[in-house]
Every structure is written in structure tokens, then in C-alpha cells.
Amino acid sequence: MNRDGSDQRPIPNAFGWDPTWSPDGEFILFASDMRGGVQLYRIKLDGSDLQMLSDLPAIRGRSDWSPDGTFIVTYSGQPWNRDVYIMNEDGSNARMLSPTSGISQGPSISPDGGWVAFTSYFDNYGDDHGCEIYMMRVDGTDVRRITNNNYCDYQPRWGP
Fold this sequence. Notes:
Elements: E1 17-21, E2 27-32, E3 39-44, E4 51-52, E5 59-65, E6 71-78, E7 81-88, E8 95-96, E9 105-109, E10 115-120, E11 132-137, E12 144-145
Antiparallel strand pairs: 1-2, 2-3, 3-4, 5-6, 6-7, 7-8, 9-10, 10-11, 11-12
């Protein structure tokens, strides 16, 4: 659709949720179960060039592109056992990024491409209201807690 909400139309062949634009505007990244288990896909706006990118055990959605379009972050895993993953923009070289046992999810890449913000339960594992927002470098180092509340902080996003 246009920025004002007019001219809404579906993207052919794109059946899924949590869409996000590639930085160059050429692709839309989204989660879908169209071929069985939930995985990440990318597609062009006209519905062409549909590609399954991931092969992880339990993608949830809410993924993000790096500002230069060279890598993607997402999260995968069963409830109370999720981790943040990073992969190349074509889905190759997928690897776990977050420390384990934190139920890490909802990643977002910083505008400079150097950090990933995400929700996790590192300090309050098992507490439904215990998730906080953390950040780490894109190599998985320097994990920092940045919120401290008595309610859950979900799905952080960076501003411009």
C-alpha cells in the first residue's frame, strides 16, 4: 500500500506474517508455514523470486535485515527455549547468536548494523512477566541488559 494507506493489495505468492522490507526495497522478508514448518522467505513486491531462506527448527517470525542488506537476524525454538540466529541475506551460514537459556526473541538490528536488540528472560527465567530488552554486538559478544521493569518488554525496534 501507499504510505497513506491507499491502494492496498496483496503480494502474489506471499502467504505469511511479520513482513519487513529489505534495505534496498527489492524484497520483503516474512515468516510462513506454506511448505510445512515455519521458515523465513523473501519475495519481490510483484510476487516473483520467492525463496525459502531458513532451515531452522522452529522459526517464529519477527526478523530483521541489516542496514546494508548483507545479513538477517531471526529467532527460533520451542516456547521457553528460543534463541536469536544470524544468517547471510540468502539464508546461508545460519548460526545461533544469543547466549543459550535466555528465551531470546524478537531481534532488531541497530541503524549502524553493529548491534542487535532483543527480548530475553536471562535474569528472570520462567517468569511470564520477566522478559527484558537486551542488546549484543552482531558477533554475539558484549550482551547488555537495557531495561529493568516488573512487566515484560517485547520486540524492541531501533529508531532512526
